[in-house]
């Protein structure tokens, strides 16, 4: 399994689990959970600096040095293509020219459902500006294909609403996207527990991005470890190729001959 | 000089300031930040030669935890 890497925008990653860095109790817990997850790519948000912040106050970057992780700056909270593009330009400046980004343009603060029209517009601009765009989108296969066609390097459909933990609600749509898109397809959002992650990987997803499923668990570090195993198990099951389902017909695993004689 | 920083109005005594002066005044020197001046990114390497104008709108951002 050592050569079964996730390849995004030409770069190889051993871990197929990407994790967010939000909602943890503190930076120590953030770091411990991310270590347990084995993730190499971590998402961060771009926000206004607290002016007047004490000079010695620790920052996320002190706990997750960019030298150890691949940062994936996101556009969480952006509702227009313009805001998303501006945010990622700032992110690129912040991270010394780093091009790999997560684009998400939301449509509604209640559901956080993506606005795919604004998302496509932003993706076009970002690709033109040489960003490597991993894009959060709905599980609409037509939109997923269009986002690939405009040059996104990974398509990341939701499994269910962001932070909902509802799991894989439409495996059929995910399957269509996986079958029609050539760039990596990662489930982003909606995973609630380890079996959800395994199911997504068994469908053939290239990876999974999650935050709340780990940070919102009673024991985030233990859940991070569970997610690591689930992603690996699901991936191996996908590569192994599951047995065909035999509807309404059993098939014994033990020999049917050589049974001892029945005493009447 | 009056500047809008992260949506808030701020007054500074000097009539003329560079971006580097401002970063130093705000105790942000050496911190990992990015700055947008009236909607345009100012690359870190150009702070010393970028003059601020009265009424400039600045966004100063950093990386925080997020998913």
Description:
The complex is a heterodimer of chains A (264) and B (67). Chain A has 9 helices and 10 strands. Chain A is of the alpha/beta class and 264 residues long. Chain A has a 3-stranded parallel sheet with strand order 3-10-9. The longest helix of chain A is centred in the C-terminal third of the chain and has 21 residues, at 220-240. By secondary structure, chain B is mainly beta. Chain B has one helix spanning 19-25, and strands at residues 2-5, 8-11, 34-37, 40-42, 57-65. Chain B has a 5-stranded mixed sheet, with no helix packed on it. In chain B, a hairpin with a 2-residue loop joins strand 3 (34-37) and strand 4. Chain B is globular and about 40 Å long. The chains are: A alpha/beta (264), B mainly beta (67). At the A-B interface, strand 4 and helix 3 of A face strand 3 and strand 5 of B.
Query: Which outline of chain B best applies?
Result: globular
- Tell me about the biggest sheet of chain A? 3 strands, parallel
Secondary-structure-derived class of chain B? mainly beta
Q: Approximately how much beta-strand content do the residues of chain B carry?
A: 35-45%
CA distance, first residue to last residue of chain B:
38 Å
Largest sheet strand order of chain B:
2-1-5-3-4
Helix count of chain B, per DSSP?
1
Main sheet overview of chain B: 5 strands, mixed
**Mean pLDDT rating of chain A:** 94
Category from helices, strands and their pairing of chain A: alpha/beta
| Chain pair with largest interface | A-B, 37 and 26 residues
Mean pLDDT of chain B: 94
Query: What is the number of helices of chain A?
Result: 9
Using only C-alpha atoms, the radius of gyration of chain B works out to: 12 Å
SSE order of chain A, one letter for each helix or strand: EEEHEHEHEHEHEHEHEHH
Could you tell me the number of beta strands of chain A?
10
Provide the gyration radius of chain A in Å.
21 Å
Q: How far is the first residue's CA from the last residue's CA of chain A?
A: 54 Å
Spans of chain B of at least 5 consecutive residues whose pLDDT stays below 50 are none
């Amino acid at each position: 399994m050592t050569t079964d890497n996730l390849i995004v925008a030409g770069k190889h990653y051993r871990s197929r689990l990407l994790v967010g860095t939000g909602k943890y109790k503190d930076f120590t817990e953030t770091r411990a959970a991310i270590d347990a997850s084995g993730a190499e790519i971590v998402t961060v948000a771009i926000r206004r600096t607290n002016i007047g912040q004490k000079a010695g106050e620790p920052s996320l970057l002190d706990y997750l040095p960019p030298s150890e992780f691949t940062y994936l700056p996101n556009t969480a909270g952006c509702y227009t293509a313009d805001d998303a593009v501006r945010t990622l330009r700032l992110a690129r400046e912040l991270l010394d020219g780093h091009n790999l980004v997560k684009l998400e343009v939301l449509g509604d603060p209640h559901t956080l459902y993506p606005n795919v029209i604004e998302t496509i517009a932003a993706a076009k601009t970002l690709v033109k500006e040489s960003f490597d765009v991993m894009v959060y989108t709905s599980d609409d296969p037509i939109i997923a294909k269009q986002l690939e066609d405009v040059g996104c390097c990974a398509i990341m459909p939701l499994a269910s609403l962001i932070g909902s933990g509802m799991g894989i609600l439409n495996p059929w749509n995910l399957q269509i996207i996986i079958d029609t898109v050539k760039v990596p397809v990662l489930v982003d959002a909606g995973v609630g527990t380890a079996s959800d992650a395994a199911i997504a990987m068994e469908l053939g997803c290239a990876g999974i991005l999650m935050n709340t499923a780990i940070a919102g668990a009673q024991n985030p570090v233990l859940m991070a470890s569970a997610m690591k195993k689930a992603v690996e198990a699901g991936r191996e099951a996908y590569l192994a190729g599951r047995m065909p389902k035999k509807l309404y017909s059993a098939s014994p695993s033990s020999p049917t001959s050589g049974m001892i004689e029945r005493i009447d | 000089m009056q500047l809008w920083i992260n949506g808030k109005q701020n007054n500074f005594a000097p009539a003329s300031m560079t971006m580097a002066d401002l970063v130093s005044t705000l105790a942000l020197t050496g911190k990992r930040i990015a700055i947008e001046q009236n909607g345009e990114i100012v690359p870190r390497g150009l702070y010393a030669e970028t003059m601020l104008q009265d009424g400039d709108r600045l966004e100063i951002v950093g990386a925080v935890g997020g998913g």
